[in-house]
Amino acid sequence: MRILIIIFLVAVIAACNPSAPPDAANVLEPGPSATATSDSAVAAAPTGAANTPLPAEPTATVAVGDAEPSATATTAAASPTPTTAPTEAAVATAGRTADGAYFLGRTDAPVTIIDYSDFL
Amino acid sequence: MLGTEPQVIEAYVETGEARIVFWPVLNHGDPSVFSALAAECVARQDMDAFWALHHDLFENQNELWRANRDYFVQAAVDVGADRAAFEQCYDSQEALEHVLELDLERRARGIFGQPVFDVNGTVFFGAQPFATFSQVIEQAAP
How many Cα atoms are found within 13 Å in the side-chain-facing hemisphere of A95? Predict the structure, then answer.
Protein backbone atom coordinates (compact mmCIF):
# COMPACT_ATOMS: atom_id res chain seq x y z
CA MET A 1 0.00 0.00 0.00
CA ARG A 2 2.82 2.41 0.87
CA ILE A 3 4.39 1.64 -2.41
CA LEU A 4 1.26 2.61 -4.20
CA ILE A 5 1.05 5.83 -2.23
CA ILE A 6 4.68 6.60 -3.01
CA ILE A 7 4.13 5.88 -6.68
CA PHE A 8 1.06 8.11 -6.64
CA LEU A 9 2.97 10.92 -4.95
CA VAL A 10 5.84 10.53 -7.41
CA ALA A 11 3.37 10.70 -10.24
CA VAL A 12 1.77 13.81 -8.76
CA ILE A 13 5.14 15.45 -8.23
CA ALA A 14 6.14 14.52 -11.73
CA ALA A 15 3.01 16.05 -13.04
CA CYS A 16 3.68 19.28 -11.12
CA ASN A 17 7.33 19.35 -12.09
CA PRO A 18 8.29 22.31 -14.27
CA SER A 19 9.94 19.86 -16.55
CA ALA A 20 7.31 20.80 -18.99
CA PRO A 21 9.19 23.55 -20.86
CA PRO A 22 7.79 22.34 -24.15
CA ASP A 23 4.39 23.21 -22.83
CA ALA A 24 5.67 26.60 -21.82
CA ALA A 25 7.19 26.96 -25.23
CA ASN A 26 3.91 26.06 -26.72
CA VAL A 27 2.25 28.63 -24.56
CA LEU A 28 4.81 31.27 -25.46
CA GLU A 29 4.70 30.57 -29.11
CA PRO A 30 1.08 31.33 -29.41
CA GLY A 31 1.87 34.44 -27.43
CA PRO A 32 3.99 36.08 -30.06
CA SER A 33 1.78 34.79 -32.77
CA ALA A 34 -1.10 36.11 -30.81
CA THR A 35 0.80 39.37 -30.60
CA ALA A 36 1.43 39.16 -34.28
CA THR A 37 -2.16 38.44 -34.68
CA SER A 38 -3.00 41.36 -32.60
CA ASP A 39 -0.51 43.41 -34.64
CA SER A 40 -2.29 42.23 -37.68
CA ALA A 41 -5.44 43.06 -36.00
CA VAL A 42 -4.03 46.45 -35.15
CA ALA A 43 -2.72 46.79 -38.63
CA ALA A 44 -6.01 45.66 -39.90
CA ALA A 45 -7.76 47.87 -37.49
CA PRO A 46 -6.51 51.04 -39.06
CA THR A 47 -7.39 49.66 -42.41
CA GLY A 48 -10.68 48.73 -41.04
CA ALA A 49 -10.77 52.00 -39.26
CA ALA A 50 -9.81 53.74 -42.43
CA ASN A 51 -12.42 51.85 -44.26
CA THR A 52 -14.91 52.44 -41.58
CA PRO A 53 -14.49 56.15 -41.60
CA LEU A 54 -14.52 56.14 -45.36
CA PRO A 55 -18.00 54.89 -45.49
CA ALA A 56 -18.65 57.19 -42.63
CA GLU A 57 -17.24 60.15 -44.49
CA PRO A 58 -19.22 59.53 -47.58
CA THR A 59 -22.13 59.13 -45.32
CA ALA A 60 -21.33 62.49 -43.87
CA THR A 61 -20.78 63.83 -47.36
CA VAL A 62 -24.00 62.33 -48.39
CA ALA A 63 -25.56 63.98 -45.44
CA VAL A 64 -24.05 67.27 -46.52
CA GLY A 65 -24.94 66.49 -50.04
CA ASP A 66 -28.40 65.76 -48.89
CA ALA A 67 -28.44 68.97 -47.01
CA GLU A 68 -27.22 71.00 -49.95
CA PRO A 69 -29.77 69.74 -52.38
CA SER A 70 -32.29 70.36 -49.69
CA ALA A 71 -31.02 73.91 -49.43
CA THR A 72 -30.99 74.15 -53.19
CA ALA A 73 -34.40 72.68 -53.27
CA THR A 74 -35.41 75.20 -50.68
CA THR A 75 -33.90 77.94 -52.77
CA ALA A 76 -35.47 76.49 -55.84
CA ALA A 77 -38.67 76.29 -53.97
CA ALA A 78 -38.15 79.84 -52.83
CA SER A 79 -37.44 81.05 -56.35
CA PRO A 80 -40.75 80.00 -57.71
CA THR A 81 -42.33 81.84 -54.83
CA PRO A 82 -41.29 85.16 -56.33
CA THR A 83 -43.38 84.11 -59.24
CA THR A 84 -43.59 87.84 -59.43
CA ALA A 85 -40.30 87.70 -61.35
CA PRO A 86 -41.81 86.35 -64.55
CA THR A 87 -44.65 88.75 -64.17
CA GLU A 88 -42.28 91.66 -63.64
CA ALA A 89 -40.07 90.47 -66.45
CA ALA A 90 -43.09 90.42 -68.65
CA VAL A 91 -43.62 94.04 -67.75
CA ALA A 92 -40.15 94.96 -68.97
CA THR A 93 -40.29 95.22 -72.72
CA ALA A 94 -37.47 95.73 -75.16
CA GLY A 95 -37.60 98.16 -77.99
CA ARG A 96 -36.11 101.21 -79.66
CA THR A 97 -36.17 104.81 -78.64
CA ALA A 98 -37.22 107.49 -81.09
CA ASP A 99 -33.50 108.11 -81.65
CA GLY A 100 -32.93 104.52 -82.68
CA ALA A 101 -31.15 103.47 -79.49
CA TYR A 102 -32.16 100.35 -77.57
CA PHE A 103 -34.22 100.24 -74.42
CA LEU A 104 -35.37 97.70 -71.89
CA GLY A 105 -38.23 98.41 -69.54
CA ARG A 106 -41.59 100.06 -69.52
CA THR A 107 -41.93 103.03 -71.80
CA ASP A 108 -43.85 104.85 -69.06
CA ALA A 109 -41.24 104.17 -66.37
CA PRO A 110 -40.67 107.33 -64.34
CA VAL A 111 -36.89 107.02 -64.55
CA THR A 112 -34.80 106.62 -67.70
CA ILE A 113 -31.20 105.53 -67.43
CA ILE A 114 -29.18 106.15 -70.57
CA ASP A 115 -26.06 104.05 -70.63
CA TYR A 116 -23.48 105.42 -73.07
CA SER A 117 -21.03 102.57 -73.38
CA ASP A 118 -18.57 101.05 -75.79
CA PHE A 119 -18.77 97.28 -76.03
CA LEU A 120 -14.99 97.34 -75.63
CA MET B 1 -21.97 98.36 -68.38
CA LEU B 2 -22.63 94.73 -67.32
CA GLY B 3 -21.08 94.97 -63.85
CA THR B 4 -24.06 96.38 -61.97
CA GLU B 5 -26.50 96.16 -64.84
CA PRO B 6 -28.16 92.89 -63.76
CA GLN B 7 -28.81 94.37 -60.33
CA VAL B 8 -30.18 97.59 -61.77
CA ILE B 9 -32.42 95.67 -64.15
CA GLU B 10 -33.70 93.39 -61.43
CA ALA B 11 -34.27 96.14 -58.89
CA TYR B 12 -35.62 98.91 -61.09
CA VAL B 13 -36.28 97.87 -64.68
CA GLU B 14 -38.18 94.67 -64.03
CA THR B 15 -40.25 96.41 -61.38
CA GLY B 16 -41.26 99.13 -63.83
CA GLU B 17 -39.53 101.90 -61.91
CA ALA B 18 -36.93 102.57 -64.55
CA ARG B 19 -36.15 102.01 -68.18
CA ILE B 20 -32.60 101.50 -69.36
CA VAL B 21 -31.41 102.74 -72.72
CA PHE B 22 -28.23 101.46 -74.28
CA TRP B 23 -26.47 103.97 -76.47
CA PRO B 24 -23.41 102.56 -78.23
CA VAL B 25 -20.18 104.52 -78.04
CA LEU B 26 -17.55 103.92 -80.71
CA ASN B 27 -14.29 104.95 -79.10
CA HIS B 28 -12.07 102.06 -80.12
CA GLY B 29 -12.12 102.02 -83.89
CA ASP B 30 -13.25 99.07 -85.94
CA PRO B 31 -13.77 96.65 -83.04
CA SER B 32 -16.23 99.12 -81.52
CA VAL B 33 -17.95 99.71 -84.84
CA PHE B 34 -18.35 96.04 -85.72
CA SER B 35 -19.56 95.14 -82.23
CA ALA B 36 -22.20 97.84 -82.36
CA LEU B 37 -23.08 96.86 -85.92
CA ALA B 38 -23.62 93.27 -84.87
CA ALA B 39 -25.85 94.41 -82.02
CA GLU B 40 -27.80 96.64 -84.39
CA CYS B 41 -28.36 93.81 -86.83
CA VAL B 42 -29.62 91.50 -84.11
CA ALA B 43 -31.89 94.27 -82.83
CA ARG B 44 -33.45 94.49 -86.27
CA GLN B 45 -34.54 90.90 -85.89
CA ASP B 46 -35.46 90.69 -82.23
CA MET B 47 -35.01 93.23 -79.43
CA ASP B 48 -34.86 90.54 -76.76
CA ALA B 49 -32.07 88.90 -78.72
CA PHE B 50 -30.34 92.28 -78.82
CA TRP B 51 -30.22 92.39 -75.02
CA ALA B 52 -28.97 88.83 -74.93
CA LEU B 53 -26.19 89.70 -77.36
CA HIS B 54 -25.51 92.93 -75.48
CA HIS B 55 -24.90 90.81 -72.39
CA ASP B 56 -22.73 88.30 -74.27
CA LEU B 57 -20.58 90.96 -75.90
CA PHE B 58 -19.83 92.66 -72.59
CA GLU B 59 -19.16 89.35 -70.95
CA ASN B 60 -16.66 88.44 -73.68
CA GLN B 61 -15.31 91.93 -74.06
CA ASN B 62 -11.69 90.87 -74.40
CA GLU B 63 -12.49 88.77 -77.45
CA LEU B 64 -13.97 91.70 -79.30
CA TRP B 65 -10.61 93.26 -80.03
CA ARG B 66 -9.81 90.51 -82.50
CA ALA B 67 -13.33 89.46 -83.38
CA ASN B 68 -14.05 89.11 -87.09
CA ARG B 69 -17.22 88.75 -89.13
CA ASP B 70 -17.49 85.04 -88.40
CA TYR B 71 -17.30 85.71 -84.67
CA PHE B 72 -20.21 88.14 -84.80
CA VAL B 73 -22.25 85.89 -87.07
CA GLN B 74 -21.87 83.05 -84.60
CA ALA B 75 -22.60 85.32 -81.65
CA ALA B 76 -25.78 86.47 -83.38
CA VAL B 77 -26.86 82.94 -84.21
CA ASP B 78 -26.18 81.94 -80.61
CA VAL B 79 -28.80 84.40 -79.37
CA GLY B 80 -31.31 83.18 -81.90
CA ALA B 81 -30.78 85.45 -84.87
CA ASP B 82 -31.33 84.20 -88.38
CA ARG B 83 -27.91 83.78 -89.97
CA ALA B 84 -28.73 84.88 -93.51
CA ALA B 85 -30.69 87.93 -92.40
CA PHE B 86 -27.92 88.88 -89.99
CA GLU B 87 -25.23 88.56 -92.63
CA GLN B 88 -27.22 90.63 -95.07
CA CYS B 89 -27.66 93.34 -92.44
CA TYR B 90 -24.03 93.17 -91.28
CA ASP B 91 -22.83 93.68 -94.82
CA SER B 92 -25.25 96.49 -95.49
CA GLN B 93 -24.32 100.14 -95.48
CA GLU B 94 -27.63 101.11 -93.93
CA ALA B 95 -27.05 99.39 -90.59
CA LEU B 96 -23.53 100.74 -90.44
CA GLU B 97 -24.75 104.27 -91.06
CA HIS B 98 -27.29 103.95 -88.26
CA VAL B 99 -24.60 102.95 -85.79
CA LEU B 100 -22.38 105.80 -86.91
CA GLU B 101 -25.27 108.25 -86.60
CA LEU B 102 -25.88 107.16 -83.02
CA ASP B 103 -22.25 107.80 -82.28
CA LEU B 104 -22.39 111.27 -83.84
CA GLU B 105 -25.46 112.04 -81.76
CA ARG B 106 -23.84 111.15 -78.47
CA ARG B 107 -20.89 113.36 -79.38
CA ALA B 108 -23.34 116.13 -80.11
CA ARG B 109 -24.70 115.57 -76.59
CA GLY B 110 -21.24 116.13 -75.20
CA ILE B 111 -20.60 112.51 -74.33
CA PHE B 112 -16.98 111.69 -75.09
CA GLY B 113 -15.78 109.30 -72.43
CA GLN B 114 -17.46 106.06 -71.51
CA PRO B 115 -19.26 104.72 -69.72
CA VAL B 116 -21.46 107.71 -69.01
CA PHE B 117 -24.84 107.41 -67.32
CA ASP B 118 -27.68 109.84 -67.58
CA VAL B 119 -30.42 109.25 -65.04
CA ASN B 120 -33.27 111.65 -65.75
CA GLY B 121 -30.72 114.36 -66.53
CA THR B 122 -28.27 113.57 -63.75
CA VAL B 123 -25.08 112.60 -65.50
CA PHE B 124 -22.22 110.70 -63.93
CA PHE B 125 -19.12 109.19 -65.40
CA GLY B 126 -17.40 105.87 -65.05
CA ALA B 127 -18.45 102.51 -63.70
CA GLN B 128 -20.34 102.91 -60.45
CA PRO B 129 -21.38 100.54 -57.69
CA PHE B 130 -25.01 99.55 -57.44
CA ALA B 131 -25.45 101.77 -54.39
CA THR B 132 -24.68 104.83 -56.51
CA PHE B 133 -27.21 103.84 -59.14
CA SER B 134 -29.72 103.10 -56.45
CA GLN B 135 -29.25 106.47 -54.81
CA VAL B 136 -29.48 108.43 -58.06
CA ILE B 137 -32.48 106.46 -59.27
CA GLU B 138 -34.30 106.91 -55.96
CA GLN B 139 -33.62 110.64 -56.11
CA ALA B 140 -34.74 110.86 -59.73
CA ALA B 141 -37.95 108.97 -59.11
CA PRO B 142 -40.91 111.35 -58.70
Answer: 11
